[in-house]
Amino acid sequence: MSERPTRPTRPNPSKLAKRKPKKAQSRTLLLTLGGAALLVVGGALAFFFLRGNDDKAGPLPLGAKVVPRDVMLSVTLNTEGGKWQQVAQFGTTDTQKTLQDQLQQLEKDVLEPNGLSYKANIQPWATNQLTMALLPPTVDSVEEQSQQATIWVVPIRDQGQFEKVFQNKLTSANSADTRTYKNTEVYEFEADDGNRYGFATLDNRWLVFTAADAPINAVIDTYKGKPALADVPRYQEALKEIENDAAIAKVYINVPIAAAQMSRVPLSPASQERIQSVQGIGSTLMVVKDGIQFKAISWLKPDAKDTLKAKNEAKDIAKHLPDDTLLMTSGGNFQQVWRDYAQGNLAKLVFPLNPKAWNDDLSKRTGIDFNNQFVSWMDGEFSSAIIPAQTDDKKGVGIVFLAKAKDRTTANQAFRDLDNAMRERFDFLVTESKVGNKTVTNWKVPPGLPIASHGWLDNDVAFFTLGAPIANRLLPAPKKNLTQAESFQGATTSDLDPNNGHFYIDMPRMLGLLDTNPLLPKLTPDTTKFMKGIETIGVTTAINNEWSTRYDIHVKLKKES
After folding, report:
1. Are 28 and 428 contacting, i.e. CB atoms less than 8 angstroms apart?
2. What is the distance between the alpha carbons of residues 113 and 127, in angstroms, rounded to a whole number?
3. Which residues neighbour 94 within 8 Å (Cβ) at sequence distance 6 or greater?
4. Global pTM?
């Protein structure tokens, strides 16, 4: 494979500032370039998780009728025998033990301190579902409730058994105080763990159990007529989209309240406004033959200023990636994704990179205005991926970004300006080579180490790589591409067609990369233990309508024999 230095083109003075050849800037430049790759990959990770009668789980969780509307998180569990044991069959020995411990933790934390067990004191009278909710303090409750409180709501199936094996046992085993709130008796007592608990029954139909006074009052207020979770705007309409009779759990997240808890960096007023316009995220969880399937939906408030553009334009860009790709994310329109992220969306809560600050930093270092010179022509499909290089040690990987271009002439000029900046400002060696029958531009740093490359895969798909040389993994077209890989097909199979993109990760190989590459961040031991039970994760997303987005998430789990 021959290489030849490219002929420098005359820098455009309006785009390139005065030359400052400082080799020391190379490292900071690489961090800036790496930030772009991480933005796309991390944004995808960042991204990126109901009605019926009283005895049967339906689309609306029973607890949604009495849980306050302003709850931050609600999780309704199906307690029907054997369903959660199906989950325990998956994973490694360590993850199976961890899951078993988690399933038992509720009993240890809530029931055992009060001399109770689920099997003896709950199961005989409860329906086949129970709801756990996290309720943050409100203006009305802050004096009594200084922090977030956990509420348990359990529908009562058999009042006689409830009184016999739960109420009488609990009140006799503890010194209980009784008070009345809005004609409802509330029992309060101090348990063996030193914490003060309370419970109440609502018309002999619901048990409300919590560790604080204020949350019980809030639930009673809700039952007496204040807005409930079921009254959240578009809640019932949205969750009907993901209804599944086989669900073992149903989850709701109140996005504005959760965002206030999650945000790791200050957000601009504009970003806050956009995030506040999202009402919620809902999900159902099902056990399937090879793991766990999530059907999820996010939706906007009815008064949101900006609605969604119901365009699902992702098609086949993954066909350009080899079948052994470790991680990939794709979408239908990079320009739209970039602008949405810059203006403020949920991804910022998980991956708080500021596109404007990043663009300004790149412009300062290179003279390149990414928004005007690159984003302007990236209004089609895109993908980013981590791909293994064909090296002797089998450990090298590169990051690749693919983008369909509406204007190849403008794109070529942008790349020429970028090449000039690397050569003029950082003394990079910029050369051209032939890979197959395509021309590839390569960047090298002294003493000739390759760090990046770019070119065209076909007439309208541009690529840019960073890290180990991987252009030869893309050119010529892979004999077996990612869309033909059985693992990718299994992870991304979805009825969301057309869709707006995918996310995919081969977990064992990614963990191996994190373990052997000293430049990559290390996971905590507990996180690594959990991840080792996963084979692949696949996400498919689609704009459902002008106010909601759907997600199908498939987690393939290991199953030890």
Report:
1. no
2. 23
3. 529, 532, 533
4. 0.84
Which residues, at least 6 apart from 466, have a Cβ–Cβ distance to it below 8 Å? 30, 33, 34, 37, 398, 399, 400, 451, 452
445 touches 385 (CB < 8 A): no
pLDDT tens digits along 294-303: 999 999 999 9
| Six token digits for residue 325 | 């790709």
How many CB atoms sit inside 10 A of residue 7's CB? 7
Report which secondary-structure segment, H or E, holds 270.
helix 269-276
What whole-number distance in Å separates Cα of residue 554 and Cα of residue 493? 8
Residue 55 pLDDT: 38
Q: How many CB atoms lie under 10 A from the CB of residue 309? A: 10
DSSP 8-state assignment for residue 91: B
Mean pLDDT of the chain: 83
3-state secondary structure of 339: helix
The 10s digit of each residue's pLDDT in 231-276 is: 999 999 999 999 998 899 999 999 988 887 766 666 677 777 878 8
Chain-centre distance of CA 160, in angstroms?
44
The helix (run of H) or strand (run of E) holding residue 471 is helix 471-474
Residue type at 283? Answer: S
Which phi-psi region, left, alpha or beta, contains residue 413 (left: φ > 0; alpha: ψ -120 to 50)?
Answer: alpha
pLDDT band for position 51 (cuts 50, 70, 90): very low
The crossing angle, in degrees rounded to 10, of helices 408-426 and 355-366 is: 60
